[in-house]
Structures are given as structure tokens and as C-alpha cells.
């Protein structure tokens, strides 16, 4: 009767020793794509009721400026006006505005900004001066100032798509996503086919975590531009954030099959591989990971985690492909990293009943990293299966000192004690496991069974 009890107890202990592994980093995944190149233009439409004119005493300077401006000779234009200022002339708002435009053409935003501010000081409702100041502040990433002048521009009547788009961009950068949404919607109302406003609205919706609306918008954009790889990547990222991993995977695969186009491709291949491990094809996942391998160890952690997951799910061939490729490709592995791979290789050898190779790999893993709990436990189990109880006990004891592996080590050690008929030690080890993890109340039944056996023996 005791043998049957012990056999049943042993199976129970071993089955409780390892928790199911999950490839569980989906919530952290983010598709990589190139951000659009934001380009802003300034309307040159004249607002007659608020546009200043040259003062009568500036006619001579104006006549001299006109041919220079018509010929695009901005250096000479700036010099002419600067000379006039040096000679004591006080430029009107109209000429200050022209000077600001000239400086902008010369990419001298500092002087341009001052010229527009001078114009506004004299004429606070000078619409185009506010508009151009808003653009300069956008370029300087001074978004509070940009919003002040762009809002004033709209208030003064220049409610064109460009100004709405610029104001929306400033709001988005200043983390006011909902106001940015409204601004881009106004811009799109005026220019419904403008891709920049569509992209701006898309980014605003994503920033506001309004993923269903973002997905609807990008699907509309894709219906008109199905060969746009970046849109497919963005679409995949939105689906991922919208808790639709299968849709994200489908969209990401479409983008990847369009061919390489940026430095983000390896990262996106890894993300696709992670999604395939959870929802798709294991073989495709491994192919993608292999395609991303190079001499660097940038994706080592993800690939190593995938190997562990494949081994747990008995995908021996696929895990071997990754281990072999990794050891061949990675030329700067740390001892800890190499130890993990050797530990996995040992597990593969065990799955093939190749005890000699398993022992070799696992011993090498432990030599490289004495704190490799997985290797210690696998080696202890191997020694125990070969009835090398003293060596196995020493390995379990070493693993018990590693917090992440303590419970499994205590259970394995308890099983070893049962196999040797040392039930008192088994009870002691199980009690320690229960103290370490009070949630494991299921162990109490095992402890009671062993205590009954001890009493019967007495």
C-alpha cells in the first residue's frame, strides 16, 4: 500500500514543480515606423482690412526694395532696410513685416521674430505677422508661444486649413490631444484630402487612446493608398493597442512582405515573431527571428525567452534552430547569456534521451553561471534519474538558495528524499516550500500523507 501511495505522491510533487510558461509580453509591444515629415506652409492671402500699408515717407525705400525682392536678392534687401534703420528710420509695421519675411528667407529666424514682434507692437491685430510668428515658434518648438499667435491668427479671421493644422500640431506636442483632434478635424473640413492633416489627426487620436476611431481613419487612408508600407505599420500598431493582436499580426505581415525599407525592420520582425508564437505559426515565428539575427545581441532576451517557450511546448526542432543560429551569430555573448543557451541545449538533449550530452551542456552552463537555477534543477533531475542521490541533493540545495527557483528546488529535493525513503526530510522540505509560498496549501495533503507513513513505520 505504501508503494502505491509513494508513487502517487511522487507524481503529484513533480507535476506541481513547474508552472506553465507563457510568452506574455504582448502588452509592451510597439510596432516601429517612421514618423511623418511635418511640413508647414504660411498662407500669403492678404487680409485687406487688417493689412498695413507703407507710410508715404517710405515710398523711396519701397521703390528701391521692389526690384530686389522681385529678383529674390534677400541679402541686398535686408542690407537696404538695416541701413535705413541705422540711419534713424523707424520702419512701419508693413516694412517690419517685409523685413521679417526677408529674414525668414535667409533662415535668420531670430531677427525675423524680432521684426514681426516690432510690427505687432505697433499694430496688435496684424494678422500675417501673428501667423508667421506662430510658424517660427513652431520651428523653435516653443509651443506655448506658437499657440498664442496661431490662436490670435484664427481669431483675426485667417481661419484657413494651414493655421488650424499648425495650431493642432502645437496642441498635440503640448500633450493636449483632444484639442489637437478638433484642430485637425477643422483643417480636414477645409482640405479633406490633405495627407498631413490626416496623419496629424491619426497621431492625435492615438495620443488620446481613441483607438477605434484611429483604426477607422487609417483604414480609410489605406483604401486610397494600399501600397503605403508605413500606413500598414501604423495600422498594425493601432490594432495592437486596440487589443486586436490577430488583426495587428495580419497588418504587420502585409507591411513586412512589402520589403525592407527602414532600420526598424528587424525590430518589427521580432514583434511579428512574438505575435506568431502566441497566435500564429511557430515555424513562421522562428523564421522571422532567424531573419533578425546578426552579430549583436540586441534581441537576445526576446529570442532566449522564445527558446524557453518552445522547449516548454516541446517544439524541439524549432528551438534547436534558434539555439544553433544564436550561438553561431552572436559573437559577444556574456557568460550569463551563453549559460542560458547551453541550459536550453541541455534540455533539448534530455528530450532526446541523450543523457551524456545533456550532462555536458548543463555542467558547462553551471560553470559559466553558478546561479543558473534552470540548469541546476535540470542537472539535479538528471542526477536523480541516474540514482546519483548525493550529487542531486547538492544541486537541489544550491538551487534552493536562488529565490526564483527555491520552491521548485525544495519540491525536487523532497521527491529525491521520498525516492530514498527519507520521509522525515521530505516533510521538512515540503514545510519549507509551504512557508516560502503559503498559497501552496495543496502541499499540506502531501505533508499529512507522509506523516501518516512515518507514524505507521513507528
From TrEMBL:
Q: Which SUPFAM superfamilies match?
A: TPR-like
Keyword check for Phosphoprotein: no
Annotated keywords: Repeat, Signal, TPR repeat
Start-end of each TPR repeat? 93-126, 127-160, 339-372, 407-440
Q: Name one Pfam family in it.
A: TPR_16
Q: Where is the signal peptide?
A: 1-20
| Keyword Oxidoreductase set for record | no
Q: What is this protein called?
A: Uncharacterized protein
Q: Which organism is it from?
A: SAR86 cluster bacterium
